[in-house]
Design goal:
The protein is of the alpha+beta class and 422 residues long. It is 25% helix and 26% strand. The chain has helices at residues 12-15, 31-42, 172-181, 205-211, 218-221, 228-237, 270-275, 351-382, 397-418, and strands spanning 23-24, 47-51, 60-66, 71-77, 83-87, 108-110, 113-115, 122-124, 129-131, 150-156, 159-163, 193-201, 243-247, 250-256, 303-310, 314-319, 323-333, 336-345, 389-390.
């Protein structure tokens, strides 16, 4: 297995000048900080809300609830094939425009116009107001002045992003930066078989992000997910990722992997051999051509995965076995959030391939449930404030960075609000 040595300074944490002192998690237990994050982060950063495959034809749309910003957006493919986003709000009396039986639930579909359930105002796919019920009874109403309010929207490699700021500080691609855009060329558009999980988690959103930014916990927390012949030696040896990188507000961790088909029968579950699949995904990887330069930066052999933590709450995790998944962490309060996990595969062509995908999906779900359960226990004790500062090891360098960036964005917002330069 090839490895990249630690930086000359001796540790990743020192290399990125993040300090080595114990850190506070006050940012994860403070209602005041959560309110500031809403304004400073989630109303200013580019937020991934989906993929273009969710809009297969002109008129296709989906809604996204953004509780952290107290709003909802509707994303639509317009008549010219472009992707647009609007606040999901009628211009008449402020009713939510697109919803089905329950206003708080997300929905999707295909339409020619958006029609308000309340008074029947109609808007075309470009957001223009086209019909007003009993228009003659309004006073000096010019429909051209009452179109849907647009939200800044852009796409990158098929991922759809929105920005709620009046004017984004940076264009999307510039915001992503070279580390993320080095993924360009990966065949995201060919991996269209989608498995989706969503569930509420009783923890701050950053705590769950932390869980997937380090693998120090894996041999301990997830030990019972694998046979003892495998988990016991793994726990004794521990695990250390060979590569971390930080660029602006974004982070990546790259890990080595295993070749599951080379393990003994005692080191794997029988179902894994039957389906040729498991935690690392299907054993039979599709041919996706040459990988982009930004993947497997440590040149690990075998390569496990690269986890790109895209600020603020979006993760693209690409596996060496030719599939990828995404995570989203949507805050709903200072100590709750909605977690979303989506797995993407090249569409199965046989029943066995389908079963291989399904086993990878249910395995991921079980690991995720274990993490979520632990984090709810973490949240309850952090809120006691019995202990206020906690030591982090070098493998937790990305956790340290995440909380540092959150603090910096909030501090910048505070200074701007006070009219003070920083």
């Amino acid at each position: 297995m090839s490895r990249v040595p630690k930086p000359p300074e001796g540790s990743w944490t020192q290399h990125y000048d993040l300090g080595t002192a114990p850190i506070s998690y006050e940012d994860s237990i403070s209602a005041e900080f959560h309110q500031l994050e809403s304004e400073a982060i989630f109303k200013r950063a580019w937020l991934n809300v989906g993929r273009v495959e969710q809009l297969p034809r002109n008129g296709s749309y989906f809604t996204k609830e953004l509780a952290v910003a107290k709003t909802s957006v509707v994303v639509v493919r317009d008549q010219s094939g472009g992707v647009r986003a609007f606040y999901n709000m009628c211009r008449h009396r402020g009713n939510k425009l697109v919803w089905n039986d329950f206003p708080g639930e997300e929905t999707n579909g295909v339409c020619r116009q958006f029609v308000c359930k309340y008074h029947g105002w109609r808007y075309d796919l470009d957001g223009a107001l086209k019909f007003v019920q009993q228009e003659e009874e309004f006073f000096d109403l010019d429909k051209a002045d009452f179109g849907l309010v647009p939200v800044h929207c852009d796409t990158w490699e098929g991922f759809i992003f929105v920005n709620l700021a009046k004017e984004p500080a940076q264009p999307l691609r510039e915001f992503l930066g070279p580390m993320v855009t080095a993924l360009e060329g990966y065949r995201f558009g060919e991996l269209t078989e989608r498995w989706f999980y969503r569930g509420p988690v009783a923890s701050n959103w950053k705590l769950y992000m932390d869980a997937f930014q380090e693998f120090y916990h894996a041999p301990v927390l997830h030990a019972r997910q694998t046979p003892a012949e495998w988990s016991a030696p793994a726990q004794k040896a521990g695990f250390e990722a060979p590569y971390y990188r930080i660029e602006g507000p974004h982070r990546v961790v790259s890990t080595s992997g295993i070749r599951p088909w080379e393990l003994s029968e005692a080191q794997r579950k029988p179902i894994e051999a039957v389906t040729r699949s498991g935690l690392f995904g299907p054993w039979d990887a599709p041919d996706l051509g040459e990988m982009p330069a930004g993947l497997n930066p440590s040149r690990a052999d075998p390569w496990g995965l690269d986890s790109f933590q895209i600020w603020p709450n979006f993760v693209i995790l690409i596996w060496g076995q030719g599939w990828y998944l995404t995570y989203h962490y949507w805050p709903t309060s200072y100590n709750t959030h909605m977690f979303e996990g989506t797995l993407y595969f090249v569409p199965a062509k046989t029943a066995r391939e389908r079963l291989a995908h399904e086993l990878a999906a249910v395995t991921f779900k079980e690991y995720g449930l274990q993490d979520a359960n632990t984090l709810e226990a973490t949240q309850t004790m952090l809120e006691s404030r019995a202990i206020t500062h906690f030591p982090l090891m070098d493998q937790e360098v990305l956790c340290r960075h995440l909380h540092k960036v959150a603090g910096e964005w909030v501090d910048e917002y505070r200074a701007e609000s006070a009219g003070v330069g920083i």
